[in-house]
Specification:
81% helix, mainly alpha
């Protein structure tokens, strides 16, 4: 039994890649705003929470 995302649905992997490529663009966009530090902090906090729960 193949448990990889590519084995279940070939289009699913491209969705994840496109979302990952959007993260640096969004961080760059919010870096220039007044609340850029809050966005970066929230992103890092969500990464830590996701790692802790996985």
């Amino acid at each position: 039994m193949n448990s990889s995302a590519r084995g279940r649905n070939p289009g699913l992997a491209s969705v994840y890649v496109s979302k990952l490529l959007a993260v640096p663009l969004l961080l760059y966009h919010y870096e220039r705003s007044q609340r850029g530090h809050w966005v970066l902090f929230a992103f890092l906090a969500s990464c830590v929470l996701l790692m802790g729960l996985s």
